[in-house]
Design goal:
By secondary structure, the chain is an all-alpha fold. It is built from five helices and no strands.
């Protein structure tokens, strides 16, 4: 998967899973929408990734890593509550983030070898 496609998949996954979590909660917390905000940021930056802008690509990787690490607390909370649906949503967001970072690292290595 190329970095552009990985960024799109990650951004849309963050938006959809975040909305699902917010709308399915009885008393939806606004903090459930934080991943959605990050997803929107990734989608806004994706055009720069598509054009091969290295600075934007590094920024997207940084944002994605922040997202992955910030999902630890929701993951821990879902585990403690035994909420398998929430656990699925968080793990899916983490998985798409990890796949996106791997796609970028692979592209960075490929670009470095091409020089």
């Amino acid at each position: 998967m190329n970095p552009y496609a990985a960024t799109l998949v990650n951004g849309y996954t963050l938006i959809i899973m975040s909305l699902w979590g917010y709308l399915s909660a009885v008393n939806g917390s606004m903090t459930a929408l934080i991943p959605m905000a990050f997803g929107v940021v990734l989608l806004l930056l994706s055009n720069g990734v598509r054009k091969g802008n290295k600075t934007i690509s590094y920024l997207v990787v940084l944002v994605t890593l922040v997202i992955i690490f910030s999902l630890y607390m929701p993951f821990q909370g879902a585990l403690e509550r035994g909420n398998n649906t929430a656990l699925f949503r968080v793990l899916l967001m983490v998985a798409t983030g990890v796949i996106a970072v791997m796609a970028f690292v692979k592209a960075f290595v490929r670009a470095r070898k091409g020089k």
